[in-house]
Amino acid sequence: MAYRNMEECIIDLEKHGHLVRIHEEVDPHLEMAAIHLKVYEAGGPALLFENVKGSKYRAVSNLFGTIERSKFIFRDTWQSSQDVIALRSNPMKALKQPFKYVGTGLAARRALPLKKTGGLPAGFEEIQISDLPQIKHWQGDGGAFVTLPQVYSEDPDKPGIMNSNLGMYRIQLSGNDYEMNKEVGVHYQIHRGIGIHQSHANKRGEPLKVSCFIGGPPAHTLSAVMPLPEGLSEMTFAGLLAGRHFRYSYVDGYCVSADADFVITGEIHPGDTKPEGPFGDHLGYYSLVHPFPVMKVHKVYAKKGAIYPFTVVGRPPQEDTSFGELIHELTGGAIKQEVPGVKEVHAVDAAGVHPLLFAIGSERYTPYQKLKQPAELLTIANRILGTGQLSLAKYLFITAEEDRKISTHDIEDFLTYILERINLHRDIHFQTNTTIDTLDYSGTGINSGSKVVFAAVGEPKRSLCTAVPQILSRELEGFGQGKMIMPGVVALQGPAFTDYAAAEQEIGRLGAAIGAAGPLDSCPLIILCDDSGFMSGTLSNFLWATFTRSNPSHDIHGVNSRIDHKHWACDNVIIDARVKPHQAPPLIADPQVEENIRRFFEEGAVLGGLGK
Protein backbone atom coordinates (compact mmCIF):
# COMPACT_ATOMS: atom_id res chain seq x y z
CA MET A 1 0.00 0.00 0.00
CA ALA A 2 1.43 3.40 -0.99
CA TYR A 3 1.13 5.40 2.23
CA ARG A 4 1.21 9.14 1.76
CA ASN A 5 2.12 9.75 5.38
CA MET A 6 2.64 8.10 8.77
CA GLU A 7 -1.03 8.47 9.74
CA GLU A 8 -2.17 6.30 6.82
CA CYS A 9 0.30 3.61 7.83
CA ILE A 10 -0.94 3.62 11.42
CA ILE A 11 -4.59 3.37 10.35
CA ASP A 12 -3.74 0.46 8.05
CA LEU A 13 -1.75 -1.37 10.73
CA GLU A 14 -4.52 -0.92 13.29
CA LYS A 15 -7.15 -2.13 10.83
CA HIS A 16 -5.20 -5.37 10.33
CA GLY A 17 -4.41 -5.96 14.01
CA HIS A 18 -0.78 -4.84 13.90
CA LEU A 19 -1.05 -1.78 16.19
CA VAL A 20 -2.33 -0.94 19.67
CA ARG A 21 -3.17 2.54 20.94
CA ILE A 22 -2.10 3.56 24.45
CA HIS A 23 -4.46 6.29 25.65
CA GLU A 24 -3.04 6.74 29.16
CA GLU A 25 -0.38 9.39 29.71
CA VAL A 26 3.14 7.91 29.50
CA ASP A 27 6.36 9.55 30.64
CA PRO A 28 8.96 9.92 27.87
CA HIS A 29 11.64 9.75 30.57
CA LEU A 30 12.48 6.00 30.42
CA GLU A 31 8.87 4.70 30.58
CA MET A 32 8.04 4.79 26.87
CA ALA A 33 11.29 3.04 26.02
CA ALA A 34 10.77 0.39 28.70
CA ILE A 35 7.26 -0.36 27.39
CA HIS A 36 8.63 -0.63 23.86
CA LEU A 37 11.36 -3.08 24.93
CA LYS A 38 8.90 -5.42 26.65
CA VAL A 39 6.48 -5.38 23.73
CA TYR A 40 9.27 -5.98 21.20
CA GLU A 41 10.64 -8.89 23.24
CA ALA A 42 7.17 -10.45 23.30
CA GLY A 43 6.81 -10.13 19.51
CA GLY A 44 4.00 -7.65 20.09
CA PRO A 45 2.35 -4.97 17.94
CA ALA A 46 3.34 -1.48 16.95
CA LEU A 47 2.49 1.06 19.68
CA LEU A 48 0.82 4.45 19.28
CA PHE A 49 1.34 6.59 22.39
CA GLU A 50 -1.52 9.08 22.23
CA ASN A 51 -0.71 11.01 25.40
CA VAL A 52 2.99 11.76 25.77
CA LYS A 53 3.76 13.65 28.96
CA GLY A 54 5.10 17.13 28.22
CA SER A 55 4.27 17.13 24.50
CA LYS A 56 1.15 17.63 22.41
CA TYR A 57 2.43 15.21 19.79
CA ARG A 58 1.71 11.50 19.58
CA ALA A 59 4.54 8.99 19.22
CA VAL A 60 4.74 5.58 17.55
CA SER A 61 7.24 2.76 18.05
CA ASN A 62 7.85 -0.86 17.08
CA LEU A 63 6.64 -0.24 13.52
CA PHE A 64 9.35 -2.59 12.23
CA GLY A 65 9.28 -4.88 15.28
CA THR A 66 8.76 -8.05 13.25
CA ILE A 67 9.90 -8.92 9.76
CA GLU A 68 6.33 -9.98 8.97
CA ARG A 69 4.92 -6.57 9.89
CA SER A 70 7.69 -4.81 7.99
CA LYS A 71 6.91 -6.78 4.84
CA PHE A 72 3.20 -6.10 5.35
CA ILE A 73 3.94 -2.35 5.35
CA PHE A 74 5.80 -2.63 2.04
CA ARG A 75 3.66 -5.39 0.52
CA ASP A 76 2.78 -3.48 -2.65
CA THR A 77 6.25 -2.18 -3.51
CA TRP A 78 8.58 -4.86 -2.14
CA GLN A 79 9.06 -6.87 -5.33
CA SER A 80 9.52 -3.89 -7.63
CA SER A 81 12.09 -2.41 -5.22
CA GLN A 82 14.01 -5.70 -5.16
CA ASP A 83 13.97 -5.80 -8.96
CA VAL A 84 15.34 -2.28 -9.35
CA ILE A 85 18.15 -2.95 -6.88
CA ALA A 86 18.95 -6.22 -8.67
CA LEU A 87 19.20 -4.41 -12.00
CA ARG A 88 21.37 -1.65 -10.55
CA SER A 89 23.67 -4.29 -9.08
CA ASN A 90 23.71 -6.43 -12.25
CA PRO A 91 22.28 -4.76 -15.40
CA MET A 92 22.80 -7.96 -17.41
CA LYS A 93 19.75 -9.44 -15.67
CA ALA A 94 17.49 -7.33 -17.89
CA LEU A 95 18.98 -8.95 -20.98
CA LYS A 96 18.76 -12.45 -19.56
CA GLN A 97 15.19 -12.12 -18.19
CA PRO A 98 13.58 -9.17 -20.00
CA PHE A 99 9.96 -9.99 -19.16
CA LYS A 100 10.65 -10.34 -15.44
CA TYR A 101 12.02 -6.79 -15.26
CA VAL A 102 9.69 -5.11 -17.74
CA GLY A 103 7.92 -3.14 -14.98
CA THR A 104 11.00 -1.80 -13.25
CA GLY A 105 11.34 1.18 -15.59
CA LEU A 106 7.88 2.43 -14.66
CA ALA A 107 8.52 1.83 -10.95
CA ALA A 108 11.82 3.71 -11.14
CA ARG A 109 10.23 6.62 -13.01
CA ARG A 110 7.59 6.99 -10.30
CA ALA A 111 10.38 7.00 -7.72
CA LEU A 112 12.22 10.10 -8.91
CA PRO A 113 12.09 12.99 -6.39
CA LEU A 114 9.49 15.64 -7.17
CA LYS A 115 10.29 19.27 -6.35
CA LYS A 116 7.36 21.38 -5.18
CA THR A 117 7.18 25.16 -5.48
CA GLY A 118 5.84 27.69 -3.04
CA GLY A 119 8.19 27.34 -0.06
CA LEU A 120 6.98 25.65 3.11
CA PRO A 121 4.56 22.82 2.26
CA ALA A 122 0.93 23.26 3.26
CA GLY A 123 -0.06 22.05 6.71
CA PHE A 124 3.28 22.75 8.43
CA GLU A 125 3.76 25.07 11.39
CA GLU A 126 6.92 26.34 13.04
CA ILE A 127 7.67 24.85 16.48
CA GLN A 128 10.68 24.44 18.79
CA ILE A 129 12.88 21.48 19.74
CA SER A 130 11.35 21.52 23.24
CA ASP A 131 7.90 20.83 21.72
CA LEU A 132 9.05 17.39 20.49
CA PRO A 133 8.57 14.31 22.69
CA GLN A 134 11.72 14.33 24.82
CA ILE A 135 12.28 10.58 24.90
CA LYS A 136 15.12 9.33 27.08
CA HIS A 137 15.73 5.62 26.52
CA TRP A 138 18.22 4.40 29.12
CA GLN A 139 19.03 5.69 32.59
CA GLY A 140 22.60 6.61 31.66
CA ASP A 141 21.71 8.47 28.46
CA GLY A 142 22.97 12.03 28.23
CA GLY A 143 19.57 13.42 27.24
CA ALA A 144 16.72 12.91 24.79
CA PHE A 145 17.55 11.54 21.34
CA VAL A 146 15.91 11.18 17.94
CA THR A 147 16.44 7.50 17.12
CA LEU A 148 14.75 7.28 13.70
CA PRO A 149 16.04 10.45 12.02
CA GLN A 150 16.48 10.88 8.28
CA VAL A 151 19.43 13.25 8.13
CA TYR A 152 19.66 14.97 4.76
CA SER A 153 22.67 16.82 3.34
CA GLU A 154 23.87 17.87 -0.11
CA ASP A 155 27.35 17.93 -1.58
CA PRO A 156 28.42 21.62 -1.57
CA ASP A 157 30.55 20.93 -4.65
CA LYS A 158 27.60 19.37 -6.55
CA PRO A 159 24.40 20.71 -4.97
CA GLY A 160 21.03 19.19 -5.69
CA ILE A 161 18.90 16.34 -4.47
CA MET A 162 20.42 13.73 -6.81
CA ASN A 163 23.82 14.30 -5.16
CA SER A 164 22.39 14.23 -1.65
CA ASN A 165 22.83 11.81 1.22
CA LEU A 166 20.10 10.54 3.52
CA GLY A 167 21.42 8.74 6.58
CA MET A 168 20.26 7.66 10.02
CA TYR A 169 22.57 9.44 12.45
CA ARG A 170 21.23 9.86 15.94
CA ILE A 171 20.34 13.38 17.03
CA GLN A 172 20.77 14.51 20.66
CA LEU A 173 18.05 17.02 21.48
CA SER A 174 18.94 17.90 25.07
CA GLY A 175 21.48 17.52 27.83
CA ASN A 176 25.22 18.11 28.07
CA ASP A 177 26.19 21.58 26.84
CA TYR A 178 23.52 21.87 24.16
CA GLU A 179 21.51 25.08 24.29
CA MET A 180 17.87 24.01 24.15
CA ASN A 181 16.04 25.04 20.98
CA LYS A 182 19.25 26.42 19.45
CA GLU A 183 21.60 23.42 19.18
CA VAL A 184 21.42 19.65 18.67
CA GLY A 185 24.15 17.02 18.43
CA VAL A 186 24.71 14.98 15.26
CA HIS A 187 26.46 11.65 15.83
CA TYR A 188 27.75 10.18 12.63
CA GLN A 189 30.39 7.48 12.31
CA ILE A 190 33.14 6.82 9.81
CA HIS A 191 32.08 5.60 6.34
CA ARG A 192 29.04 7.91 6.35
CA GLY A 193 28.05 10.08 3.39
CA ILE A 194 27.41 13.19 5.46
CA GLY A 195 31.08 13.17 6.45
CA ILE A 196 32.12 13.61 2.81
CA HIS A 197 29.72 16.53 2.48
CA GLN A 198 31.01 18.16 5.65
CA SER A 199 34.60 17.68 4.47
CA HIS A 200 33.77 19.48 1.21
CA ALA A 201 32.03 22.28 3.10
CA ASN A 202 35.01 22.64 5.45
CA LYS A 203 37.37 23.02 2.48
CA ARG A 204 35.16 25.77 1.15
CA GLY A 205 35.15 27.44 4.57
CA GLU A 206 31.36 27.39 4.82
CA PRO A 207 28.80 25.66 7.03
CA LEU A 208 26.99 22.55 5.84
CA LYS A 209 23.21 22.91 5.60
CA VAL A 210 21.46 19.92 7.11
CA SER A 211 17.80 18.88 7.36
CA CYS A 212 16.56 16.20 9.73
CA PHE A 213 13.28 14.62 8.64
CA ILE A 214 11.30 12.64 11.22
CA GLY A 215 8.38 10.44 10.25
CA GLY A 216 6.56 10.48 6.95
CA PRO A 217 5.92 7.25 5.02
CA PRO A 218 7.85 4.34 6.64
CA ALA A 219 9.71 3.84 3.34
CA HIS A 220 11.55 7.09 3.97
CA THR A 221 12.81 5.81 7.33
CA LEU A 222 14.08 2.55 5.84
CA SER A 223 15.76 4.42 2.99
CA ALA A 224 17.98 6.24 5.49
CA VAL A 225 19.66 2.95 6.49
CA MET A 226 19.91 1.28 3.08
CA PRO A 227 23.36 0.43 1.64
CA LEU A 228 22.42 1.07 -1.97
CA PRO A 229 24.31 0.18 -5.16
CA GLU A 230 26.23 2.92 -6.96
CA GLY A 231 23.93 5.24 -8.90
CA LEU A 232 20.77 4.63 -6.84
CA SER A 233 20.21 7.51 -4.40
CA GLU A 234 18.41 7.21 -1.09
CA MET A 235 15.86 9.77 -2.26
CA THR A 236 15.02 7.73 -5.35
CA PHE A 237 14.81 4.56 -3.28
CA ALA A 238 12.52 6.35 -0.81
CA GLY A 239 10.10 7.02 -3.66
CA LEU A 240 10.53 3.52 -5.05
CA LEU A 241 9.69 1.77 -1.79
CA ALA A 242 6.91 4.25 -0.94
CA GLY A 243 5.32 3.81 -4.37
CA ARG A 244 5.22 7.56 -4.94
CA HIS A 245 7.65 10.43 -5.51
CA PHE A 246 9.67 11.85 -2.64
CA ARG A 247 8.15 15.34 -2.54
CA TYR A 248 10.26 18.26 -1.35
CA SER A 249 10.81 21.98 -1.51
CA TYR A 250 13.45 24.43 -0.34
CA VAL A 251 12.81 26.86 2.51
CA ASP A 252 15.55 29.39 3.36
CA GLY A 253 17.94 27.21 1.36
CA TYR A 254 17.11 24.03 3.31
CA CYS A 255 15.45 20.94 1.85
CA VAL A 256 12.08 20.22 3.47
CA SER A 257 10.29 16.89 2.95
CA ALA A 258 6.63 17.58 2.17
CA ASP A 259 5.64 14.21 3.64
CA ALA A 260 7.67 14.21 6.87
CA ASP A 261 5.93 14.75 10.20
CA PHE A 262 8.74 16.93 11.57
CA VAL A 263 11.69 18.73 9.99
CA ILE A 264 14.67 20.24 11.83
CA THR A 265 16.89 22.51 9.73
CA GLY A 266 20.26 23.93 10.67
CA GLU A 267 23.95 24.31 9.94
CA ILE A 268 27.10 22.45 10.97
CA HIS A 269 30.03 24.86 11.06
CA PRO A 270 33.63 23.79 10.37
CA GLY A 271 35.31 22.44 13.51
CA ASP A 272 32.24 23.07 15.70
CA THR A 273 31.77 20.15 18.09
CA LYS A 274 30.35 19.55 21.54
CA PRO A 275 30.33 16.52 23.86
CA GLU A 276 27.66 14.07 22.67
CA GLY A 277 26.34 11.06 24.60
CA PRO A 278 26.28 8.81 26.53
CA PHE A 279 23.72 6.78 24.61
CA GLY A 280 22.51 3.20 25.10
CA ASP A 281 23.54 1.69 21.80
CA HIS A 282 22.91 -1.37 19.62
CA LEU A 283 25.94 -3.32 20.85
CA GLY A 284 24.26 -3.59 24.26
CA TYR A 285 26.52 -1.02 25.94
CA TYR A 286 26.58 2.74 26.32
CA SER A 287 28.50 4.69 23.72
CA LEU A 288 30.37 7.23 25.81
CA VAL A 289 30.79 10.99 25.64
CA HIS A 290 32.88 12.17 22.67
CA PRO A 291 33.02 15.39 20.65
CA PHE A 292 30.71 15.26 17.64
CA PRO A 293 29.38 17.94 15.29
CA VAL A 294 26.85 20.36 16.74
CA MET A 295 24.08 21.67 14.50
CA LYS A 296 22.94 25.24 14.96
CA VAL A 297 19.16 25.04 14.68
CA HIS A 298 17.62 27.31 12.03
CA LYS A 299 13.95 26.32 12.20
CA VAL A 300 11.82 23.37 13.28
CA TYR A 301 8.57 22.45 11.55
CA ALA A 302 5.73 20.09 12.39
CA LYS A 303 2.85 18.94 10.24
CA LYS A 304 -0.67 19.26 11.58
CA GLY A 305 -1.41 16.06 13.54
CA ALA A 306 2.25 15.00 13.37
CA ILE A 307 3.31 11.64 14.80
CA TYR A 308 6.81 11.12 16.21
CA PRO A 309 8.35 7.71 15.39
CA PHE A 310 11.05 6.27 17.65
CA THR A 311 12.82 3.04 18.39
CA VAL A 312 14.96 1.74 21.24
CA VAL A 313 18.28 0.06 20.68
CA GLY A 314 20.18 -2.20 23.05
CA ARG A 315 21.66 -5.66 23.19
CA PRO A 316 20.44 -7.53 20.09
CA PRO A 317 17.94 -8.56 19.00
CA GLN A 318 15.99 -5.30 18.93
CA GLU A 319 13.76 -3.55 16.40
CA ASP A 320 16.80 -2.59 14.31
CA THR A 321 17.34 -6.33 13.80
CA SER A 322 14.37 -6.19 11.44
CA PHE A 323 16.12 -3.41 9.52
CA GLY A 324 19.03 -5.76 9.01
CA GLU A 325 16.80 -8.56 7.79
CA LEU A 326 14.97 -6.25 5.41
CA ILE A 327 18.23 -4.89 4.04
CA HIS A 328 19.57 -8.41 3.52
CA GLU A 329 16.47 -9.47 1.59
CA LEU A 330 16.45 -6.34 -0.55
CA THR A 331 20.17 -6.13 -1.30
CA GLY A 332 21.58 -9.57 -0.45
CA GLY A 333 22.61 -10.22 -4.05
CA ALA A 334 24.47 -6.92 -4.38
CA ILE A 335 27.48 -8.13 -2.40
CA LYS A 336 28.05 -10.90 -4.96
CA GLN A 337 28.54 -8.26 -7.64
CA GLU A 338 30.70 -6.04 -5.46
CA VAL A 339 32.98 -8.84 -4.22
CA PRO A 340 33.66 -11.43 -6.95
CA GLY A 341 33.70 -14.99 -5.66
CA VAL A 342 31.65 -14.33 -2.55
CA LYS A 343 28.47 -16.35 -2.14
CA GLU A 344 27.18 -15.14 1.20
CA VAL A 345 28.08 -12.59 3.88
CA HIS A 346 26.31 -12.45 7.23
CA ALA A 347 26.86 -9.64 9.75
CA VAL A 348 25.87 -11.50 12.91
CA ASP A 349 23.16 -9.56 14.73
CA ALA A 350 23.58 -11.36 18.05
CA ALA A 351 27.18 -10.09 18.18
CA GLY A 352 26.13 -6.50 17.48
CA VAL A 353 26.43 -6.71 13.66
CA HIS A 354 29.79 -5.01 13.04
CA PRO A 355 32.05 -7.06 15.36
CA LEU A 356 31.47 -10.41 13.62
CA LEU A 357 31.10 -11.48 9.97
CA PHE A 358 30.53 -14.96 8.56
CA ALA A 359 31.20 -15.51 4.84
CA ILE A 360 31.14 -18.23 2.24
CA GLY A 361 33.37 -17.73 -0.77
CA SER A 362 34.92 -19.68 -3.61
CA GLU A 363 38.21 -21.53 -3.84
CA ARG A 364 38.96 -21.72 -7.59
CA TYR A 365 42.62 -20.78 -7.98
CA THR A 366 43.89 -24.33 -8.50
CA PRO A 367 40.92 -26.50 -9.58
CA TYR A 368 43.31 -29.21 -10.77
CA GLN A 369 44.59 -29.76 -7.23
CA LYS A 370 42.84 -31.16 -4.19
CA LEU A 371 42.27 -28.24 -1.86
CA LYS A 372 44.90 -27.95 0.81
CA GLN A 373 44.78 -24.39 2.08
CA PRO A 374 42.83 -21.14 1.64
CA ALA A 375 44.01 -19.04 -1.30
CA GLU A 376 41.18 -17.28 -3.14
CA LEU A 377 39.37 -17.10 0.21
CA LEU A 378 42.07 -14.76 1.52
CA THR A 379 41.65 -12.48 -1.49
CA ILE A 380 37.90 -12.43 -0.87
CA ALA A 381 38.43 -11.80 2.85
CA ASN A 382 40.58 -8.76 2.12
CA ARG A 383 37.99 -7.48 -0.33
CA ILE A 384 35.20 -7.91 2.24
CA LEU A 385 37.20 -6.06 4.89
CA GLY A 386 37.76 -3.24 2.40
CA THR A 387 34.11 -2.81 1.45
CA GLY A 388 31.96 -0.07 2.99
CA GLN A 389 30.65 -0.77 6.46
CA LEU A 390 31.86 -4.38 6.30
CA SER A 391 35.32 -2.88 6.80
CA LEU A 392 34.35 -2.09 10.40
CA ALA A 393 34.26 -5.80 11.34
CA LYS A 394 36.75 -7.23 13.83
CA TYR A 395 36.26 -10.96 13.25
CA LEU A 396 35.71 -12.64 9.87
CA PHE A 397 35.15 -16.39 9.65
CA ILE A 398 35.23 -17.52 6.01
CA THR A 399 35.08 -20.87 4.23
CA ALA A 400 34.14 -22.43 0.90
CA GLU A 401 31.44 -25.05 0.34
CA GLU A 402 32.82 -28.36 -0.80
CA ASP A 403 31.41 -31.61 0.49
CA ARG A 404 28.05 -30.29 1.75
CA LYS A 405 25.74 -27.29 1.79
CA ILE A 406 26.32 -24.77 4.57
CA SER A 407 24.72 -21.47 5.56
CA THR A 408 26.17 -18.52 7.44
CA HIS A 409 22.80 -18.19 9.18
CA ASP A 410 23.03 -21.65 10.78
CA ILE A 411 25.54 -20.30 13.25
CA GLU A 412 26.52 -23.39 15.21
CA ASP A 413 26.80 -25.56 12.10
CA PHE A 414 28.83 -22.87 10.29
CA LEU A 415 31.30 -22.46 13.15
CA THR A 416 31.53 -26.22 13.55
CA TYR A 417 32.37 -26.57 9.85
CA ILE A 418 35.24 -24.09 10.20
CA LEU A 419 36.58 -25.39 13.52
CA GLU A 420 36.71 -28.93 12.13
CA ARG A 421 38.84 -27.77 9.19
CA ILE A 422 40.98 -24.85 10.31
CA ASN A 423 44.76 -25.24 10.50
CA LEU A 424 45.64 -23.15 13.55
CA HIS A 425 49.29 -22.98 12.47
CA ARG A 426 48.41 -21.37 9.14
CA ASP A 427 44.84 -20.10 8.79
CA ILE A 428 44.61 -17.17 11.24
CA HIS A 429 45.46 -13.76 9.77
CA PHE A 430 45.63 -10.50 11.73
CA GLN A 431 45.30 -6.84 10.76
CA THR A 432 46.50 -4.56 13.55
CA ASN A 433 46.23 -0.83 14.27
CA THR A 434 43.26 -0.34 11.98
CA THR A 435 39.66 0.90 12.09
CA ILE A 436 36.70 -0.68 13.86
CA ASP A 437 33.18 0.51 14.64
CA THR A 438 32.90 3.85 16.45
CA LEU A 439 30.52 2.24 18.95
CA ASP A 440 32.91 -0.63 19.81
CA TYR A 441 34.95 0.08 22.95
CA SER A 442 36.96 -3.14 22.93
CA GLY A 443 39.77 -1.53 20.92
CA THR A 444 42.62 0.85 21.68
CA GLY A 445 40.62 4.05 21.16
CA ILE A 446 37.58 5.42 19.36
CA ASN A 447 37.44 3.88 15.85
CA SER A 448 40.73 2.06 16.56
CA GLY A 449 41.42 -1.64 17.00
CA SER A 450 42.28 -4.72 15.01
CA LYS A 451 40.85 -7.49 12.84
CA VAL A 452 41.37 -11.20 12.39
CA VAL A 453 40.41 -13.62 9.64
CA PHE A 454 39.77 -17.30 10.35
CA ALA A 455 39.84 -19.07 6.96
CA ALA A 456 39.32 -22.80 6.48
CA VAL A 457 38.80 -25.24 3.61
CA GLY A 458 39.38 -28.88 2.85
CA GLU A 459 38.63 -32.10 4.65
CA PRO A 460 37.92 -32.17 8.40
CA LYS A 461 41.13 -32.23 10.42
CA ARG A 462 39.67 -33.03 13.81
CA SER A 463 36.64 -34.31 15.69
CA LEU A 464 35.33 -31.66 18.06
CA CYS A 465 34.76 -32.38 21.74
CA THR A 466 31.17 -32.41 22.96
CA ALA A 467 32.09 -32.56 26.66
CA VAL A 468 34.59 -30.47 28.59
CA PRO A 469 38.02 -32.12 28.19
CA GLN A 470 39.52 -33.40 31.42
CA ILE A 471 42.32 -30.82 31.51
CA LEU A 472 39.77 -27.99 31.32
CA SER A 473 37.38 -29.48 33.85
CA ARG A 474 39.56 -28.64 36.85
CA GLU A 475 40.99 -25.47 38.38
CA LEU A 476 43.96 -24.39 36.25
CA GLU A 477 46.15 -21.39 37.10
CA GLY A 478 43.20 -19.46 38.55
CA PHE A 479 40.80 -20.43 35.72
CA GLY A 480 38.13 -23.10 36.05
CA GLN A 481 34.43 -24.00 36.02
CA GLY A 482 34.78 -25.14 32.42
CA LYS A 483 31.51 -25.38 30.49
CA MET A 484 30.69 -26.40 26.92
CA ILE A 485 29.42 -23.64 24.66
CA MET A 486 29.16 -25.76 21.49
CA PRO A 487 31.25 -28.54 19.94
CA GLY A 488 34.92 -27.61 20.14
CA VAL A 489 34.34 -24.44 22.20
CA VAL A 490 34.76 -24.33 25.99
CA ALA A 491 34.23 -21.41 28.41
CA LEU A 492 36.62 -21.00 31.35
CA GLN A 493 35.84 -18.63 34.20
CA GLY A 494 38.73 -16.60 35.56
CA PRO A 495 39.77 -13.75 37.80
CA ALA A 496 38.69 -10.21 36.95
CA PHE A 497 40.77 -8.57 34.23
CA THR A 498 43.08 -5.85 35.59
CA ASP A 499 45.43 -4.85 32.78
CA TYR A 500 47.05 -6.33 29.68
CA ALA A 501 50.44 -6.90 31.31
CA ALA A 502 48.85 -9.05 34.01
CA ALA A 503 46.63 -10.79 31.44
CA GLU A 504 49.66 -11.79 29.35
CA GLN A 505 51.20 -13.46 32.39
CA GLU A 506 47.96 -15.12 33.58
CA ILE A 507 47.07 -16.50 30.18
CA GLY A 508 50.66 -17.45 29.50
CA ARG A 509 50.64 -19.65 32.59
CA LEU A 510 47.24 -21.07 31.61
CA GLY A 511 48.45 -21.89 28.10
CA ALA A 512 51.61 -23.53 29.44
CA ALA A 513 49.56 -25.69 31.82
CA ILE A 514 47.23 -26.81 29.02
CA GLY A 515 50.15 -27.49 26.70
CA ALA A 516 52.01 -29.50 29.31
CA ALA A 517 49.07 -31.91 29.54
CA GLY A 518 49.51 -32.92 25.90
CA PRO A 519 47.68 -32.20 22.64
CA LEU A 520 44.08 -30.93 22.90
CA ASP A 521 43.15 -30.99 19.23
CA SER A 522 39.45 -31.59 19.85
CA CYS A 523 39.04 -28.17 21.49
CA PRO A 524 40.38 -25.54 19.09
CA LEU A 525 38.69 -22.57 20.85
CA ILE A 526 38.76 -21.65 24.54
CA ILE A 527 36.87 -18.57 25.78
CA LEU A 528 37.97 -16.85 29.00
CA CYS A 529 35.17 -15.02 30.77
CA ASP A 530 33.87 -13.63 34.04
CA ASP A 531 30.92 -16.04 34.23
CA SER A 532 31.13 -19.37 32.41
CA GLY A 533 27.50 -20.13 33.25
CA PHE A 534 26.35 -17.01 31.42
CA MET A 535 28.79 -17.50 28.54
CA SER A 536 27.63 -21.07 27.93
CA GLY A 537 23.96 -20.41 28.70
CA THR A 538 22.93 -19.64 25.13
CA LEU A 539 24.61 -19.30 21.77
CA SER A 540 23.54 -15.65 21.76
CA ASN A 541 25.35 -15.03 25.06
CA PHE A 542 28.52 -16.52 23.58
CA LEU A 543 28.32 -14.42 20.41
CA TRP A 544 27.52 -11.20 22.24
CA ALA A 545 29.99 -11.42 25.12
CA THR A 546 32.90 -12.90 23.15
CA PHE A 547 32.90 -10.66 20.10
CA THR A 548 31.91 -7.36 21.72
CA ARG A 549 34.43 -7.70 24.58
CA SER A 550 37.57 -8.64 22.69
CA ASN A 551 40.10 -6.88 20.47
CA PRO A 552 41.81 -9.55 18.33
CA SER A 553 45.37 -8.18 18.56
CA HIS A 554 45.20 -7.81 22.34
CA ASP A 555 42.78 -10.52 23.42
CA ILE A 556 43.61 -13.53 21.26
CA HIS A 557 46.18 -15.80 22.86
CA GLY A 558 47.13 -19.40 22.20
CA VAL A 559 48.44 -22.64 23.61
CA ASN A 560 52.00 -23.03 22.32
CA SER A 561 51.63 -19.77 20.39
CA ARG A 562 54.53 -18.60 18.27
CA ILE A 563 55.44 -16.36 15.35
CA ASP A 564 56.88 -17.95 12.23
CA HIS A 565 58.18 -15.36 9.75
CA LYS A 566 55.75 -12.78 11.11
CA HIS A 567 52.80 -15.22 10.99
CA TRP A 568 51.10 -16.00 14.31
CA ALA A 569 50.30 -19.65 15.04
CA CYS A 570 49.08 -21.76 17.96
CA ASP A 571 47.72 -25.18 18.90
CA ASN A 572 44.54 -23.88 20.57
CA VAL A 573 43.05 -20.38 20.32
CA ILE A 574 42.27 -18.59 23.59
CA ILE A 575 40.04 -15.49 23.40
CA ASP A 576 39.98 -13.30 26.50
CA ALA A 577 36.37 -12.12 26.65
CA ARG A 578 36.48 -10.85 30.21
CA VAL A 579 35.17 -7.33 30.81
CA LYS A 580 37.98 -4.78 30.54
CA PRO A 581 38.17 -1.55 32.60
CA HIS A 582 38.29 0.62 29.46
CA GLN A 583 35.13 -0.88 27.97
CA ALA A 584 31.75 0.85 28.12
CA PRO A 585 29.21 -0.30 30.72
CA PRO A 586 26.42 -2.65 29.61
CA LEU A 587 22.79 -1.52 29.44
CA ILE A 588 20.74 -2.49 32.48
CA ALA A 589 17.02 -1.84 32.93
CA ASP A 590 15.99 0.49 35.78
CA PRO A 591 14.06 -1.61 38.37
CA GLN A 592 11.88 1.32 39.44
CA VAL A 593 10.84 2.05 35.85
CA GLU A 594 10.08 -1.64 35.32
CA GLU A 595 7.80 -1.49 38.35
CA ASN A 596 6.16 1.74 37.13
CA ILE A 597 5.13 0.24 33.77
CA ARG A 598 3.70 -3.01 35.17
CA ARG A 599 0.25 -1.44 35.08
CA PHE A 600 0.23 -1.55 31.28
CA PHE A 601 0.82 -5.31 31.21
CA GLU A 602 -1.57 -6.47 33.93
CA GLU A 603 -4.62 -8.60 33.18
CA GLY A 604 -7.23 -6.46 31.42
CA ALA A 605 -4.78 -3.62 30.68
CA VAL A 606 -4.09 -2.38 27.16
CA LEU A 607 -1.00 -4.62 26.88
CA GLY A 608 -2.23 -7.38 29.18
CA GLY A 609 -0.60 -10.73 28.46
CA LEU A 610 2.49 -9.21 26.83
CA GLY A 611 5.87 -8.71 28.45
CA LYS A 612 5.55 -11.44 31.10
Largest sheet: 9 strands, antiparallel
**Backbone structural class:** alpha+beta
- Beta-strand content bin: 25-35%
Shape: globular
The overall pLDDT average reads: 92
Using only C-alpha atoms, the radius of gyration works out to 25 Å
Helix content: 25-40%
Number of strands: 30
Low-confidence stretches: 91-106
Outline the structure in words.
It is a single chain. The chain has 612 residues and is α+β, with helices and mostly antiparallel strands. Helix content is 26%, strand content 25%. Strands 5, 6, 7, 8, 9, 10, 11, 14 and 17 form a nine-stranded antiparallel sheet that branches. Strands 19-20-21-23-22 form a five-stranded mixed sheet, with helices on both faces. α2 links the parallel β1 and β2 (46-49). α4 crosses α6 and α6 (104-111) crosses α9 (234-242). It is globular and about 80 Å long. The relative contact order is 0.11.
Keywords:
612 residues, alpha+beta, nine-stranded antiparallel sheet, five-stranded mixed sheet, 26% helix, globular
Task: Lay out the secondary structure.
Layout: H1 6-15, E1 19-22, H2 31-41, E2 46-49, E3 58-61, H3 67-73, H4 78-89, H5 92-96, H6 104-111, E4 114-115, E5 124-127, E6 145-146, E7 149-154, E8 164-167, E9 171-172, E10 183-186, H7 193-204, E11 208-214, H8 218-223, H9 234-242, E12 247-251, E13 254-257, E14 262-276, E15 279-280, E16 286-287, E17 290-303, E18 307-310, H10 319-331, H11 334-338, E19 344-347, E20 356-361, H12 376-384, E21 395-400, H13 411-421, E22 428-435, E23 448-456, E24 480-486, E25 489-493, H14 500-516, E26 525-529, H15 532-537, H16 539-548, H17 552-555, E27 556-559, E28 562-564, E29 567-569, E30 572-576, H18 591-596
Parallel strand pairs: 1-2, 3-18, 4-12, 20-21, 21-23, 25-26, 26-30
Antiparallel strand pairs: 2-3, 5-17, 6-9, 7-8, 7-11, 9-10, 10-17, 11-14, 12-13, 14-17, 15-16, 19-20, 22-23, 24-25, 27-30, 28-29
Helix pairs in contact: 4-6, 6-9
